[in-house]
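Tokenise the fold.
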Amino acid sequence: MRYLRRLQWNDSSVLIHPPGFYIIGFTSLPFANLYFLFLAFVYVVSVVFNTFLIYIITVDHRLHNPKFIAVGNLAVVDLVLNTCIIPGMLKAFLAKNNFVPFNLCMVQMYVYYSFISMESFSIAVLAYDRMIAICFPLRHGSINTMTSMSCILGFIWCFCLGIPIFSTSIMTRLSYCDSVNVYSYFCDYAPVFRLACNDNTLQWAVASVLSLGILLGPLSFIVMSYISILIAAFRMKSVESRVKALATCTEHLILVAVFFFPVLTIFMVGLLARNIKPDPDLRVLSLSLASCIPPCLNPIVYSLKTKEIKSKVLTMFRRIKVQVVNG
């Protein structure tokens, strides 16, 4: 394969960048056809339900409150996250074209890690909403206002869109003068920097630190939030009040379990166990499922478990039914 040499001088050395990379994560996966059909189904469900959830929150003025602004934000993040990954995988499978140009690879890497970070922090924001509602019920309306929630979400977007600029830009300091085969399902950070033929210590350190911060930071906040919630719940006088308070957290706990535990396990094994090389097919399959399934399940969980959204959905279906009968 011919290489494109970019004369970017760094300590008197020339950096070698290929025209692009070949994504070969699923080339040896058994039953790959069925798996891609499953991913296509996941993507369609994700787009339909997240779009529907955003629409409901937008048109129903009763849902214009801090909690559902955070839920709507999560739906937008889910939509972008799956759109950035699954269509590219399906294109590579259907068109038999798994080549990704170098610059497009860097863009995909940036978008994915920006929005996977945003997913993590958005779930933490929902834990904050539950903590304020249960621990400070009388002051909930004055503490968690639309203004404060908008500022929190604005900060998260700026932070999550800003940090990956540095981590992605330092990938251009590496020379890729040997293999251009990426053992992943997209231009994944660690599989790409491991292809470099010069020192990638900085990239490994940045990936490790950011993974710990982006995953363990929000998860630690969520754990502390639920400790506060449990303390507040057990101070309530009646068992019925305790059960009612804790029941409002069930949908959020499902999101935490579905997103954090698989992703955290895979990232920590991949980045901290530097000298261990797990089976590439198993890593790709696990990471793709851990990345693609939560954005599909999140809107379904909130649609089925949240009384306000379920009520709005039932009302819409009743209207449609009446219109069909009368028409």
Remarks:
- Residues 1-12 have pLDDT under 50 and may be disordered.
- The chain has eleven helices and five strands.
- The beta strands are 4-10, 13-17, 20-23, 99-101, 181-182.
